[in-house]
Amino acid sequence: MKRLLFVLLALLAGGLGADDFDYRLVAQPVAGDVYAFIGKTEDFDTVNGGNIVNTGFIVGAEGIVVIDSGPSLRYGQQMRQAIARVSAKPVLLVINTHHHPDHFLGNQAFADVPIGALADTRQGIARDGDAFAENLFRMSGNWMKGTEVQVPNRTLAAGRLAVAGRSLRLVALDGHTGADLVVVDEASGVLFAGDLVFNGRAPTTPHADVGHWHAALDRLEQLTRESGFAALVPGHGAVARDAAPIRQTRDWLNWLTDGLRQSARAGLDMNEVLARPLPAVYDGLPMGAAEYRRSVGHLFPAFEQDALEPGR
């Protein structure tokens, strides 16, 4: 009996051990020759290994364009393997939509191809990349083994980009970060929104300018009304066929900032603001309570300052 128990424990340990690190990436078809890898609507931890992000790729006549590379070297390597199961064509370009680590720390697996981003995103990755990687090591553990920062080596700008036999429309916005790149595949009508849009998960705000973010959401909603729009791939959450995730993201930001403004004007301190419950509409929203607390830390001091010095 003891021997049987030992064998069972050994098998269990082997199944969960450090050699398993498999993200189990499956390419989800979005539209003609456009695919996405959909992450979990969770926070980073040692179980998911940071697979909380959406990445994707577009297969053109001449090769493949990758949209974001994931949170680790392992993710990037497994992403390339999953892409190869769909198409044997070469990867010709990787695009980083912004400088948050779950979107670029897989770059290392694509070091043999051009990696492009907006100029400010390149600068942000060069400036903050190592600190981001160290933080993910603390949160995700050995999933991050071997991961090093690979800074994009090509500067992208707004406009049309012909690559891999595909025509892409690059839209340069900001709000979630100081530089947020939206990629529209013109042939399929698929819009990769990056973290300007969250679907079924509370948005993150560590580098947010909410006013600019609202303007970006307005522009994105305009894009979904244009002829040919087929699907929206958010930075987190399920793929959508309409603008509902844009409105959901806007509604959260409105609720968040209205509440922080009212709390500051009422003279509440940060602990009192942190203790406020989420409204019923957000009860059960993945990461709602955690992201609310983080956003209070990120945003409330500015609202306090504005309440003390209105119109400064």
Q: How would you write the strand order of the largest sheet? A: 1-2-3-4-5-6-7
Return residue spans where pLDDT drops below 50 for at least 5 consecutive residues. 1-18
Q: Residue-averaged pLDDT, rounded?
A: 93
What is the terminal separation in angstroms? 75 Å
Assigned CATH class: Alpha Beta
* Shape type: globular
CATH homologous superfamily? Ribonuclease Z/Hydroxyacylglutathione hydrolase-like
**Approximate strand percentage:** 15-25%
| CATH fold field value | Metallo-beta-lactamase, Chain A
State Rg: 21 Å
Overall CATH architecture: 4-Layer Sandwich
What count of structural domains? Answer: 1
Helix content: 25-40%
Main beta-sheet strand count, sense and barrel state: 7 strands, mixed
Describe this structure in words.
This protein has 312 residues and is of the alpha/beta class. It has a single domain (21-243), classed as Metallo-beta-lactamase, Chain A. The chain has seven helices and twelve strands. It has helices spanning 2-16, 73-86, 119-140, 210-224, 244-265, 270-274, 288-308, and strands spanning 28-31, 34-37, 55-59, 64-67, 91-95, 115-118, 154-156, 159-163, 166-173, 180-185, 190-198, 231-236. The protein has a seven-stranded mixed β-sheet with strand order 1-2-3-4-5-6-7. β1 (28-31) and β2 form a beta hairpin. α4 packs antiparallel against α5 and α5 (244-265) packs across α7 (288-308). The termini are far apart. The model is unreliable at 1-18 (pLDDT under 50).
